[in-house]
Amino acid sequence: MKQVLIVDDEPELLLSIKSGFEHTGHFRVLTAENGRDALDLLDRNKIDLVVTDLRMPVMDGIELLSVMSESFPEVPHLVMTAFSNPMIDKQLKKAGTLNVLEKPLDIEALELAISKALDVHEEQSRSLFGLSLSSFLQMVAMEEKTVHIKVFQPSGRNGSLFFREGELIDAEVDHLTGDPAALEMLSWEDTRVSMKEFPSPPPGTKMQSELLPLLFAAAKNEDERGHEEEFSSPLETARQELARLNKAEQQEQPQPAAPPNHTTGGNMGIKDLLKKMADEMDGVLAIQVTGMDGITLALHNPTGADVEAFSAKFAMVMKLVEKSVDSLKGLGDLEENLVQTKNAWISTRFITPQHYIGIAVSREGTLGNMRLVAQNYIEHLRKLLTTKPE
Question: CA 112: distance to chain centroid?
């Protein structure tokens, strides 16, 4: 059974993934809450694949990948993150990341991505038996083979090279043919090939150059690209872009996290409304409005209950449930997510696509009453959240 290491600083997420994979029985899962712990597990175990978050304490995901590229280059990896953009994705894939997964994601999607990544890595390991494409082509030439070689890139692109008695007579990829097509394929990384003989190749050749000069030209191009990139590796570029995103996020956060004496009139209206809702419900433990970024906008907590999990944790739950409901065609939009504990009901429902209301009532309270009151006030809350202050 393949061993997969999941690295994330959310213990609840790790527990959920491990529990889900135990039920399927397809992988054995090890978990770590930061990059440093992950490296300890890599030292002590045979790991077939690493799936890592980017933003973590102690050692983040990019630093983990940097160390892995030196100490564990044979271990493939995926990245799962809620904080990415096309530039970060591109740099991570240039650094060898097989796929970048957007959080939150459900167990089925993660299992499928892991299975695909393991298959791709196994194919890459088998193909060329550790040889580069240029070395493989030299062997074909030395053995004077007459073959059609199909070259595949991890992104899905593919091309063809045609040999007649060891002589390269044609190359095709996309709209390119001849020398440009061969040079394009020789610039690809992590290629795999298939090869079949063909009995009667065309008599002429479309190539302007023989194989050896093409290999020299490809090596020169690779060397020039290396000099251009040596001062800024893909992972360093990804790190800089992630730092920029972090800074932008920190600059945007102070407004919703402002202290009570700076709360806007709209938010004060929401707090008053939550208190009014609580007065009409039985057994209210806590009621709050939270953004999908996990930041609480307004809270009424008459019992002083510990409601920390109402924020970021339930934002993730709402995203996962909405995504699961969307995948079941014909059921309509998500209206309510209901959690039953030993002592309470916890109801969460969207007010806007960016905000949800969370209500916790004791089991002595009436579930129907809670739902009715919430439905009566949801439109009023939506207006308060979408109306811009004067």
Answer: 13
